[in-house]
Amino acid sequence: MKGPYDIIQAPLISEKGTALAESANQFLFKVRTDANKIEVKHAVETLFKVKVVDVRMARYLGKVRRIGRSMGRRSDWKKAYVTLKEGDKIDFFGGA
């Protein structure tokens, strides 16, 4: 059984994510590659005590990287765009 801490790996803090949070009340999270929208919705509602309206997902393939002669590949990952109910907010930095 996957718990909420297993599904959501990290919040994604970027310029695009900050702009979405301010304008559309959307927050970005890095999630497990096998997680679906329903699991992400329940995990965010459980962890942050907010009401989720919509979840959109995007898959990213890992890039091929080279260090000297050896070739490697970064792992695939998935991003979740979580839209919250009007009035709800997630504060990652704990500001006053």
Can you characterise this structure?
The protein is of the alpha+beta class and 96 residues long. It has one domain: RRM (RNA recognition motif) domain (Alpha-Beta Plaits). The protein has helices at 4-7, 15-23, 37-48; strands at 8-11, 26-31, 52-60, 64-67, 70-73, 77-84. The longest helix has 12 residues, at 37-48. The chain is globular. The termini are far apart. The mean pLDDT is 94.
**Distance linking N and C termini:** 36 Å
DSSP E strands, number: 6
Order of helices and strands: HEHEHEEEE
Quote the beta fraction. 35-45%
Derived from helix and strand composition plus strand pairing, the structural class reads: alpha+beta
Q: Report the total helices.
A: 3
Rg calc:
15 Å
Broad shape: globular
Strand order of the largest sheet: 1-2-6-3
Write out the CATH superfamily name: RRM (RNA recognition motif) domain
Query: How does the major sheet shape up?
Result: 4 strands, antiparallel
How does CATH name the architecture?
2-Layer Sandwich
Number of folding domains? 1
Amount of helix: 25-40%
Unreliable residue stretches: none
